[in-house]
Design goal:
seven-stranded parallel sheet, two-stranded antiparallel ribbon, 14 helices, about 50% helix, binds coproporphyrinogen III
């Protein structure tokens, strides 16, 4: 493994490991992106996948929010869609529409179109971006790596893009259960190896995004979601037991207890979940992350500060990483992101002194 500058702020990692700290760490999902003018300036000259595939640009964009706000983590600038690309599918980022697959997986026969990737060849640009970013961060904050969860990636690969209901992908689970499992298995193998490679390239914490897990019912989640999430955590923690693993299974109210029994150290909650109830369900088996409604950032600063204070009180001072319940939105005001981050600093210190 390469050597890197020593870490000056390890609040995020210590909290993720369950240690008590004198302030709650904070970062934001999608903290690098279009709400930042400095990101839009780079995108004027480079398209999305060019930024992702050019380590210098990816590192610059990853660090932008860290330069601007007192964050406790940086998340590598990339996308969950790099894994379907590595598996041989073409993905286009269509402005206003998000990721689009010109030739999605229509029938089980289409699984023959997938390739078994050489991870270093297919995803080496992400590893290079991580190594470069870790150096350029100079130990300011830990670097977070990530991947999409198997079900969420399958949903895009079958549906061909964003969708409200993902009915084609969900239909596969009932019409082609064995082919669905074969697909999920292939994605799982790539994601596990990819995440292990991210640690070896410099990632210090990893998050698995199961953004569409909430479209599954309790039983389909237990069959097509959870086992693959579990296997990823087992394989990554066997290779790198000290690297905290975060799982974000959006809207999976029924699955918190099962997730708490896995190797994930941190469970990231969306804003529809009450922190007190989640804590009651998972007990001390996991650290919780989240979960301010991203739309609270549209509120006036005073109202936003009250929302942050209320959220922090719900989680309590320990075993909590402050974050949003989902990603930053393109029309968010960066100054409101600042209010969010600074309010976490202020109120979480205050909570420990009263
Ligand atoms: O700052 C960060 O969080 C790191 C970068 C990051 C991006 N995508 C950059 C991005 C991360 C962690 C992701 C993950 C991702 N990508 C997820 C899981 C998290 C979630 O939001 O649920 C998903 C589902 C995707 C797929 C994806 N990529 C969508 C749906 C879109 C379009 C929606 C949108 O915001 O436009 C993207 C494109 C994308 N990924 C952008 C960014 C900054 C915007 C593209 C642009 O610059 O034009």
């Amino acid at each position: 493994m390469p050597t890197f500058p020593p870490l000056k702020n390890d609040l995020l990692l210590r909290t993720a490991r369950g240690e008590t700290t004198d302030r709650t760490p904070v970062w934001m999902m999608r903290q690098a992106g279009r709400y930042l003018p400095e990101y839009r300036a780079i995108r004027e000259d480079h398209d999305f996948f060019e930024v992702v595939e050019t380590p210098e640009l990816a590192a610059e964009v990853t660090i932008q929010p860290v330069e601007r706000f007192p964050l406790d983590g940086a998340i590598i600038f990339s996308d969950i869609m790099v894994v379907p690309e590595a598996l041989g599918l073409t993905v286009e980022m269509v402005s206003g529409q998000g990721p689009t697959f010109p030739q999605p997986l229509a029938t089980p026969d289409d699984l023959d179109r997938l390739v078994d990737p050489n991870i270093d060849a297919a995803l080496g640009h992400v590893f290079d971006a991580l190594t470069r970013t870790r150096h350029e961060l100079e130990g300011r904050v830990p670097l977070i790596g990530f991947a999409g969860a198997p079900w969420t990636l399958m949903a895009y690969m079958v549906e061909g893009g964003g969708s409200k209901s993902y009915r084609h992908a969900r239909a596969w689970l009932y019409r082609h259960p064995e082919a669905s499992k074969a697909l999920l298995r292939r994605i799982t193998d790539v994601v596990a190896e990819y995440l292990i490679g991210q640690v070896e390239a410099g990632a210090q914490m990893l998050q698995v995004f199961d953004s569409w897990a909430g479209l599954l019912g309790p039983e389909t989640f237990r069959t097509f979601g959870l086992p693959y999430l579990e296997e990823i955590a087992e394989r990554v923690s066997a290779a790198h037991p000290d690297v905290p693993l975060v799982v974000f299974a959006k809207n999976v109210h029924h699955g918190l207890e099962a997730l708490a029994a896995t190797e994930y150290d941190v469970i990231s909650l969306d804003w529809t979940m009450a922190p007190e109830a989640a804590r009651h369900t998972v007990g001390d088996r996991a650290v919780l992350q989240g979960n301010l409604d991203p739309c609270a950032l549209y509120a006036a600063p005073e109202a936003l500060r009250r929302e942050v204070q209320h959220m922090l009180a719900g989680f309590g001072p320990h075993r909590h990483i402050a974050n949003l319940g989902h990603g930053m939105l393109p029309d968010h005001d960066p100054e409101h992101a600042r209010v969010f981050v600074e309010a976490v600093h202020e109120h979480s210190r205050h909570m420990r002194t009263v």
